[in-house]
Amino acid sequence: MDASEVSALHDAMRRHGIPGVLTPVDPQNPAGIWRVVDDGGRDVTEATLAAAAAAARRRPRRGFVVGG
């Protein structure tokens, strides 16, 4: 994932309670490739992207439906 996608993924992670820390692969190049790591420092980027995509597809569990 590149730097332009980081903000959207970070927002999705916070919104859906998905754990992980976004960090650049090369700390000297924050405009380059980024990844998600867990508390143990393991790369969990693919799992996090999949979890964020699945959460975005889910329908809301509560709320109101207003018909016309």
Notes on the structure:
The protein is elongated. The chain has 68 residues and is α+β, with helices and mostly antiparallel strands. The mean pLDDT is 89. Helix 1 packs across helix 2. Helices cover 40% and strands 12% of the residues. It has a two-stranded antiparallel ribbon with strand order 1-2.
How many beta-strand elements?
2
Helix-strand string: HEEH
Please give the alpha-carbon distance between the first and last residues. Answer: 42 Å
Mean pLDDT: 89
- Count of runs of 4 or more consecutive helical residues: 2
What form results from the Cα inertia axes?
elongated
Helix content bin: 25-40%
Major sheet strand order: 1-2
The low-confidence runs, each spanning 5 or more residues with pLDDT under 50, are none
Attribute tags:
12% strand, alpha+beta, 2 helices, 68 residues
Short description:
The chain is of the alpha+beta class and 68 residues long.
